[in-house]
Amino acid sequence: MAPKPKADALVQKSPAEFFAENKNIAGFDNPGKCLYTTVRELVENALDAAEAISELPHIEITIEEVSKARLNRIRGLEHHDRLDAQLYQDFESEEARKKRLAKEAKEQEKLQKLVEKHGEGAAAVEAKRKELAAAGSGKPGGAMRGNHFYKVTVKDNGGGMPHKDIPNMLGRVLSGTKYGVKQTRGKFGLGAKMALIWSKMTTGLPFEIWSARPGSATRSHFLLDIDIHK
Fold this sequence. Notes:
Blueprint: H1 15-21, H2 23-26, H3 31-52, E1 60-66, H4 68-75, H5 94-118, H6 120-137, E2 149-155, H7 166-171, H8 191-203, E3 207-211, E4 220-224
Antiparallel strand pairs: 1-2, 3-4
Pfam families: HATPase_c_3
InterPro entries: HATPase_C_sf
């Protein structure tokens, strides 16, 4: 029989594994907060980069909504059909569908009673309230049914990153000051990396990085991917 691990044994976890278990602590526990935290962490990094070279920060932020169809085209899945719907997060079993339809029928019955008792105005208000509630919960039948994706781009006037160090600086969790980069804002110093891991987990796509050093005639360009299973 194999010996049982000691209760006080230290377990090493990858950044992706740590993030998957602690999304709520990092600020990635719901879609709206995920977008906010992503922008906040990237902006904080941009502020640090400008401060490091004693420059007033100039930051450009672009948030672009990406439809599921466009995302699938980028993924190369535009013409692919689902072979096993149960493998997908938005799968709804037959039993769940029947329950949802029964619940919706009851809600419609309640709305009809409101119309008869208070008129169309009260029913419209109640219907809008339920629509917003369903959208917030992401339940089937709500206005937010399906996933919404956003492309976030942040551009700043900081000092840039050394070309050879970019994969390590953004793709790994580092300790010490070997790379001469220090984050003075934020809770963890890992926020940008967690935003990148979240992007990979939710879209499966790599992220794009452009960087230039002061006085350099060239720019570094990376299409950086993270193995979220390590």
